[in-house]
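Try it yourself: sequence plus thymidine-5'-diphosphate, in.
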Amino acid sequence: MNIDRCKMIDLPKISDPRGNLTFIEGGHQVPFDIQRVYYLYDVPGGSERGGHAHKELQQLIIAMSGSFDVILDDGEKKKRVHLNRSYNGLYVCPMIWRELDNFSSGSVCMVLASNQYDEADYYRDYADFIQALQ
Ligand code: TYD
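Structure, out:
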């Protein structure tokens, strides 16, 4: 089951009364080489993002600020994961349909990705995604 490969990764946290620090090093905390970083911000209340799957892309999703939910779906099983810690990352393997919702006001969703942007790597139609799993 693909969904069982999606896991929360605890990132290092250096606690400090001056403010906490978390770091991510390529090849260490994430199981892929980081080729791209992007982030969602200024998300209006009630908004939904995602709504697609990737053929090969691997990602680590982090709530840098605030909170939101990620709904994972491998065509057989669904799981809703609440992200609200900047020292936790949700690893999402290929061939997972994902949706993001429940964004708190001012939240920032940062995504580390294993490849540069490539529209050909997307399934944007759920029926096409299910078909590809057969
Ligand atoms: P999309 O991946 O659909 O956003 P989300 O999954 O967060 O809802 O991308 C939205 C638009 O932004 C789409 O036109 C493609 C573009 N885009 C890039 O140009 N580069 C990127 O790295 C990403 C993630 C998206």
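One thing you can check immediately is this: The CA atoms of residues 1 and 76 lie 8 Å apart.
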